[in-house]
Amino acid sequence: MDVSEPLPSTSTALNNINLPNAFDRTTLSEVILSVHNFLEHLNCGETTRVLRDEINRQQILAPRHDLLEDRMEAETFEHFAQTHENTADLIPLIEKLNDISQKRFTNGNQPSIVRLSAHPPYSLTCADAKPGPPQIPPVPVIPTLNPLRLNSFRTKDRLQTIQFGGNVPSQMILSKKILTDYKRHTRMMGHKSPIYCITFDRTGKYIITGADDNLIKVWDAQSCILRYTFRGHSAEICDLAVAHENTLLASGSNDKTVRVWCMQKGTPTNVFKQHTGQISTVCFPAFFQGGIRYLVSGLF
């Protein structure tokens, strides 16, 4: 008998599997062994026992050649495991595959965490090609509101119109009465360099400033007392944004990073380093999707 000919399988388990050209029955057997070893490391004894019994019952493993009898025999899991002790573990195998996959990304936008369920072009099984430009939905054309209608709007309504994308002329954002009664409340000195961005928190009780000294400061708007100083950026702070639930603060900097801070504790929660240029804007969209809060950032 030609030993290169595989033993015809009596198993129906392989009928619905389309193996790639670089795969054969032995490769498939090694993958099964790697999965078994991974489950064994997790102390899933009952699961691995059922898996071994099912593999032997259906004769899934590649047949072996009996040199004494010069014939092909059905392989057992126990014998295959003994003769293939050097089979790669599942986790290092996926990690190596991820390292090879990330070489496709030359712009620093590769994901930092391995995800087997990622969408193209970040999937490990995606074709070896550079990812194309992201599909940006067309920007809707927002008409300018009639100034006569804006005159009847309260200041709060005008600010909400801007928040939802309406185009309000700058000279009409505040009413004449507010501009007439406007007086300087106080003057605070705290930064050693020019301030680039400033915003209120969602309650209006705190003022947040970002400056050229790489620092973010949170002030009490009434008492003008400095409450927090956020340190972490290595370049000027370009923009600030407060989440709508008033729990998170996002900051963009010329150090090409976006940092997210906890407003209650004053501590950083996340650092995003995917940008390759100086960040000019950050924003929390006013919507959730599947319980997920999104953060949008842009650069020059």
Automatic annotation (TrEMBL):
Record flagged with keyword Repeat: yes
GO terms for biological process, alphabetical: cytoskeleton organization; regulation of cell shape; regulation of transcription by RNA polymerase II
GO annotations of cellular component type: nucleus
WD repeat boundaries on the chain: 188-223, 230-271
Keyword field: Repeat, WD repeat
UniProt xrefs under PANTHER family: BRWD3, WD REPEAT DOMAIN 9
Protein name as it appears in the record: Uncharacterized protein
Lineage of source species: Eukaryota, Metazoa, Ecdysozoa, Nematoda, Chromadorea
